[in-house]
Design goal:
Chain lengths: ~325, ~375
């Protein structure tokens, strides 16, 4: 039963993504009933959607939807009818500006939303005490400029403002929840994308012949590809676990770290075994690699997030055992 | 499963073990104890845990257990290491051979399992040979049928704890060597039989955990065949699911304890966060993947070639955790002469064995390449 539902959802998601070559927008998710599904089975809804998006390397504002759904489910007062555009921080930072007693200032971040002129932004901001809070900002006076960058198909936009009016300060717990929800979705997306790269590479080494045999018969080539499969096996297990019970931050950071590392492995080994073809634009790898270079680093890369987990373990004095078979 | 009113409830392993840890300190096989001491304490500990109603969960009552499935055993292994106990030395072979006996030789299992659960005996696995490592199907030890049983001749190697074991599961050839995996049979052999010689091997871990076992005209009764004659490969493949599934789970439990110990001893090192974090995520990948696999085993699912992913994650985690310990405790590792320094060196060497035993990681990758990814087959035997 559960497996059938999962197959159905994955199939429907794949079809929807395939039918929207320019990327999914909010209304597409409404049309497919994603917002109802996510209430019933959030792990399945987010997992299927983002693995599908990753596999297709499809541009999307779905990440905002996944984040806002989790925030509102936790009690955040946010409108899903006129959703704010989420401002994400670039790698190496944990906020996109600062907040004092009055307005927010020094806003600099990126948005994925496709809405031309969002009415409000949702932004993680540093407080003077060093903590990060999440606030709704008025869009007036905020500039939006397109970014081409490493992957123009993402159609990212840079958000900047000297200062912005704070409509509502939601508090620090929501900033942490935003990071968790976004990383969890991106972990799924990375897994889907790494799987797509692996499939392209498997297809290539099976058909490409050198020295009179398919290059996929060479053990050195095979082992490069199995390294991707093994990395995906660990990453997928921990990412799935992050939906069981209350996801703690260690589980989500570990999931995103493993997913980013699997993606890095897919890029490194996929490019290697696809040889010269992998460097041509006509070969399907090129666009997957561009997306991978962004996703792997977005919201923290593999070693960086592993380091964050390690520091939390050292501070706690104990390495948490993720799940188990306790009575 | 839950027929009748007399349904036993599994005790809270971790709570019990934590409460009794101090009282059981003398029979705790600590990782820094000498091997022989660990084995002696393991007998005492498992016997006590069985008497207290803990060890035995996960084995059916007809085999001397308390009922339940592989997840109950997994819970005990996890709780033991979390409560500061070393892993009892018996449980590695028990998982592998116990699962083979219960599935393929239930009569033998009824006779044999209680002695292990009660802490009186230890078993070992006689698979590898000098000329048959990862290529197990090329093994040469022979079993010749007689009027009332079998005569075994040959040599096994890398037999863990062979020198302390009473029984050995011996894979031997019962037909044409050209038959490779089709002419193998698994036997249950009493190592106290005439003709058996066990020679411990001193290894780089600093211990003589492995043995060479020689069989010279060893008589084995007819009812000590596990599974069918010439059906040894099928039994070996069944048991391999437990070797790759449950063994990986045991090892992750042990490595969690090792990582906690590292946090306590070297948490102040300037690179502790990054080093421990890298090891932790590799270990978490193994643990969570292995948890899925143990749950599948418990549900009676037959594991396929994908379990080679678990074995490969195990190799990666073993290397990562023990390299982290070596890096953060480099002075102890290089210069220490105390028991704990010897332990971390021994465990580092043992971690290198993890990518070799039970089928080298290269062989696991061949299996994944061919049977999971469906890559074209290279011209190689196997």
């Amino acid at each position: 039963m559960a497996d059938e539902l999962e197959d159905e959802v994955r199939e429907a998601t794949r079809e929807l993504i395939a039918s929207k070559p320019d990327g999914l927008v909010w209304a597409d998710l409404e049309d497919m009933g994603w917002f109802d599904l996510v209430e019933e089975s959030p792990g399945l809804a987010v997992g299927a959607l983002f693995e599908g998006l990753g596999y297709a390397a499809s541009g999307s504002e779905a990440l905002d939807a996944a984040v806002l759904v989790e925030l509102t489910a936790a009690g955040a007062e946010l409108s899903l009818d006129v959703p704010p555009a989420v401002v994400y921080y670039p790698p190496g930072r944990h906020a996109v500006g600062s907040i004092g007693s009055g307005d927010a200032s020094q806003i600099d971040g990126i948005v994925l939303a496709r809405v031309e002129e969002p009415a409000t932004f949702l932004a993680p901001l540093s407080r003077e005490d060093g903590s990060t809070t999440l606030a709704v900002l008025d869009a007036s006076g905020v500039s939006l400029e397109p970014i081409s960058g490493v992957d123009p198909s993402l159609r990212l936009r840079r958000v900047r403002a000297q200062s912005a009016r704070v409509v509502h300060d939601l508090g620090v717990e929501y900033a942490a929840l935003l990071a968790k929800a976004a990383r969890r979705a991106v972990a799924h997306e990375s897994i889907g994308l790494a799987r797509a790269i692996l499939d392209v590479a498997v297809e290539h080494v099976t058909s490409r012949k050198q020295f009179g045999r398919a290059i996929g018969t060479y053990q050195a080539v095979q082992h490069r590809l199995t390294d991707i499969e093994v990395a995906l096996g660990g990453a997928a297990a921990v990412t799935a676990l992050s939906w069981e019970g209350e996801a703690d931050s260690v589980t989500v950071l570990t999931a995103k770290s493993l997913a980013a590392t699997a993606l890095d492995t897919a890029v490194r080994n996929g490019l290697q075994v696809c040889g010269g073809m992998g460097f041509t634009e006509e070969f399907p790898l090129a666009r997957l690699v561009r997306r991978a270079l962004f996703l792997s680093a977005f919201l923290g890369g593999g070693p960086q997030l592993a380091g964050a987990v390690g520091r939390s373990i050292v501070a706690a004095g104990k390495a948490p055992r993720l799940s188990g078979f306790a009575a | 499963m839950t027929e009748g009113l007399d349904v036993k409830t599994r005790p809270d392993f971790l709570a019990w073990l934590t409460e009794h840890a101090a009282e059981l300190a003398d029979i705790n096989p600590r990782p820094d104890d000498e091997l022989e001491t660990r084995v002696d304490k393991s007998f005492a500990l498992l016997g006590r845990l069985n008497a207290e109603g803990l060890a035995g969960w996960g084995w059916a009552e007809e085999f001397g257990g308390f009922g339940g499935d592989a997840t109950d055993r997994a819970a005990l292994y996890d709780a033991l290491t979390e409560a500061g106990f070393g892993m009892p030395e018996q449980v590695g072979a028990l998982e592998v051979l116990g699962s083979a006996l219960t599935a393929f030789a239930p009569e033998l299992a009824r006779r044999m399992l209680p002695a292990v659960l009660e802490g009186r005996e230890l078993w070992c696995q006689g698979f590898s040979e000098p000329e048959a490592g990862s290529d197990l199907a090329s093994l040469r030890t022979t079993a010749k049928q007689t009027a009332d049983g079998w005569i075994i001749d040959g040599q096994k190697v890398w037999t863990s704890l062979g020198h302390r074991s009473r029984w050995c599961g011996v894979l031997a050839r019962t037909g044409d060597p050209g038959g490779r995996h089709r002419t193998l049979t698994l036997f249950w052999v009493d190592l106290e039989s005439p003709g058996v010689t066990v020679r411990p091997l001193q290894t780089t871990t600093g211990e003589a955990e492995f043995s060479e076992v020689f069989f010279d005209g060893v008589v084995v009764p007819a009812d000590h065949v596990i599974g069918e004659v010439d059906g040894g490969w099928k039994v070996a493949m069944h048991l391999l699911q437990y070797e790759r599934g449950m063994w990986a789970w045991q090892r992750q439990a042990i490595m969690h304890a090792a990582l906690d110990d590292l946090v306590a001893t070297a948490g102040g090192h300037p690179t502790a966060g990054d080093t421990i974090g890298a090891a932790y995520v590799a270990l978490a990948a193994l643990r969570v993947r292995s948890r899925q696999t143990v749950a599948r085993l418990a549900a009676g699912e037959r594991l396929g070639p994908e379990v080679s992913i678990d074995k490969t994650l195990l190799s990666t985690a073993e290397h990562a955790v023990n390299d982290a310990i070596r890096a953060l405790r480099v002075n102890d590792f290089l210069f220490g002469d105390d028991a704990d320094s010897k332990r971390i060196r021994g465990e580092w060497y043992y971690s290198r064995a993890a990518s070799v035993y039970g089928g080298a990681v290269e062989v696991q990758k061949n299996i994944i390449a061919e049977h999971v990814l469906g890559l074209p087959r290279e011209d190689r035997r196997g």
